[in-house]
Amino acid sequence: MSAIRITGVAVLFTGLLIGPATLASAGAQVTRGDFAPLDIPDYPVSGHATMVRTGSGETKVSVEVSGLEPGATYASHVHNRACSDMRGGGHYMNDTAGPATPPNELWLSSDPKNPSAGLSANPAGNANGHGTAPWTARPEARSVVIHQTGNPAVRIACADLS
């Protein structure tokens, strides 16, 4: 019985040490980046974004952000360029000739029942959001951008996914 426990602990410990390699061997690719202000340099946003291209053909993105206006909702999407390249470029689209909405684009939402709801900041100005697409994002899915409430042309923050 104790040998089983030791083996289980050893397997768990090994899995923790090689977590990313294990994901890669299972066919998943994980990229992550930290948010930095974009169009408004002194905007106090911080946090991170994570993208998982699963081995089963899905793409999942999650974000944790702080420094947002309490109670506000922000549009946030995967973009097709790095943050330093044309402010993240345009929205990443699975089918470049398809519609500019989910499921062709990967949007982030704080509401698990509505993928188009956007990131909703709580009273402390923090937001968590998730998005899932039924396809594997190509390499040009490079960043996650958060747009200003009421003015989507202004990009308040960007996280490179590398």
Record field, number of beta strands: 9
Q: Which CATH class?
A: Mainly Beta
Helical coverage, percent range: 10-25%
Poorly predicted segments:
1-25
Number of helices: 2
Describe this structure in words.
The longest helix is centred in the first third of the chain and has 16 residues. This protein starts with a helix and ends with a strand. The chain contains two helices and nine strands; from the N terminus they run H-H-E-E-E-E-E-E-E-E-E. The N terminus is likely disordered. The protein has a single domain, classed as Superoxide dismutase, copper/zinc binding domain (Immunoglobulin-like, Sandwich). A hairpin with an 8-residue loop joins strand 1 and strand 2. Helices cover about 15% and strands about 35% of the residues. With about 160 residues, the chain is an alpha+beta fold. The strands form two sheets. A seven-stranded antiparallel sheet has the order 5-8-9-1-2-3-7. It has a two-stranded antiparallel ribbon with strand order 4-6.
Helix-strand blueprint:
Elements: H1 2-17, H2 19-25, E1 29-37, E2 46-53, E3 59-66, E4 73-74, E5 76-79, E6 119-120, E7 127-133, E8 143-148, E9 151-160
Antiparallel strand pairs: 1-2, 1-9, 2-3, 3-7, 4-6, 5-8, 8-9
What is the structure about, briefly put?
By secondary structure, the protein is α+β, with helices and mostly antiparallel strands. It has helices spanning 2-17, 19-25; strands at residues 29-37, 46-53, 59-66, 73-74, 76-79, 119-120, 127-133, 143-148, 151-160.
